[in-house]
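User: structure tokens for IclR family transcriptional regulator, please.
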Amino acid sequence: MPKEARPRPKLEGVASAERVLTILTAFQRGDDALELTELARRTELVKSTIMRLCISLEKFGLIERLDDGRYRLGVEAARIGSVYQQSFALEERVVPVLERLAAESMETASFYIRRGNQRLCLFRADSPYPLRMNVRPGDMRPMDQSAIAQVLAVFGDRADPQGAPELPLHTSGVTDPHVASLAMPVFGAGRRLIGALALSGPSSRLTTEQAGILAPRLREAAERLSAELGAQV
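Assistant: Done. Predicted tokens:
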């Protein structure tokens, strides 16, 4: 006889987390900053609870408390929103390119954007090899001298800066002594930098010689993607 399906456990959210989200979602389009009284009215939480929760939100940059005591959404909330908007628009264009690059090169293909003094892995397609990079979409990495970071830094202000490195740019052992990467800029309308298209793998595998073999493939993929995003290439 077939086994009876076990009932799924009833899961409940964490009350404190729900109260935090209640505060964040109280802000509406057109709001600048809200007084504590208005937040209490919208959330139906007592003022002391709101103030205590906002301290935690301030630590993560999600809420800012102004000198006059009002609250507004912080820069981290803006970052999350911009990541969502950009990823939503880019995903259908970028992900198929990454999947094709990973299948053809046998290395991990990824797409990075710059966020201040860090770079954010927005999308990724894994190498079929078990030995590969462990960076996941949403992870932040430093703006160091790696190929990906250099592309984002050099082409962030100007599409064709003077003294730009030869592309694709290959580096090895910068962020991690065992990792190498090969990167190309991807542009949108007006030759504005959108992000960096990259191949990454173990430095023992993604050698200078192998990077030279893969370079034309990565260059072609980046130029084609740039054209699809509105750049004149």
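User: Anything notable?

Assistant: The beta strands are 63-65, 71-73, 108-115, 118-125, 140-142, 169-172, 179-187, 193-202.
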